[in-house]
Specification:
single chain, mainly alpha
C-alpha cells in the first residue's frame, strides 16, 4: 500500500510538472477578463495622462523568458502588489463602489489561486520598488487625489493586461 501511495504521489508530481497549474490554464483567463472589465467600468474612460515613471517592461521581458513556475510566481507578485496598492482609502475618487468591491474580490481570488500554484520564493525586488515608487509619485506627492487614483488605475490596467498576455502565451 505504501508503494502504491508513493507511485501515485510521483505520478501526480510528474503530471503537475508537465501540465503546469490547472488554475493558470483554465480559470486564470476567465478571472483576468472579469477583473479587467470591472477595472475599465468602475470609473470613467481610463486616462491618457502619464504617471511619469518608466513602466517595467524589462521585467516582463525577463519573466517571459523564464520557466513556467517562475512566470507564475512573477504573476502572483504583480497581483499581490496591485492588491496592496489598491488596499488604501479609495474614497477620493468617484468610482462605482460595487464594481471596485467586485474587482478586489476577483483580484484576491486570482491572487490566492495563483500563489497556490507555486512554492514560496523571494519576490522580485525591482518590481516591488516600482510599485512603491508608483504609490509615492501619485498618492504621496499629488494634491489631486482623484487624479492620482485615476493614474494608478491606468497603471494597474497596464500591469493586469501584461500579466494576462504573459499567462496566455507562456503557461
Amino acid at each position: 500500500m505504501k508503494a502504491f501511495f508513493s507511485v501515485c504521489t510521483f505520478l501526480m508530481l510528474i503530471l503537475h510538472l508537465t501540465q503546469g497549474c490547472p488554475w493558470m490554464q483554465h480559470k486564470f483567463p476567465q478571472y483576468s477578463r472579469n477583473y479587467l472589465t470591472l477595472l475599465e467600468e468602475m470609473g470613467e474612460k481610463i486616462t491618457e495622462d502619464n504617471v511619469g515613471l518608466n513602466f517595467p517592461d524589462e521585467l516582463y521581458r525577463l519573466a517571459r523568458k523564464s520557466q513556467p513556475e517562475k512566470i507564475t510566481w512573477f504573476i502572483a507578485q504583480v497581483l499581490d502588489e496591485v492588491s496592496l496598492l489598491l488596499d488604501e482609502n479609495v474614497t477620493a475618487v468617484a468610482w462605482d463602489q460595487k464594481k471596485l468591491k467586485d474587482f478586489m474580490s476577483t483580484l484576491d481570488t486570482q491572487l490566492v489561486a495563483t500563489q497556490s500554484c507555486v512554492s514560496k520564493t523571494k519576490g522580485n525586488k525591482r518590481l516591488h520598488l516600482y510599485f512603491k515608487k508608483l504609490r509615492t509619485e501619485t498618492l504621496g506627492k499629488m494634491e489631486d487625489k482623484a487624479k492620482a487614483w485615476e493614474l494608478i488605475r491606468k497603471e494597474v490596467h497596464r500591469h493586469l493586461t501584461k500579466v494576462d498576455l504573459l499567462a496566455s502565451t507562456r503557461l
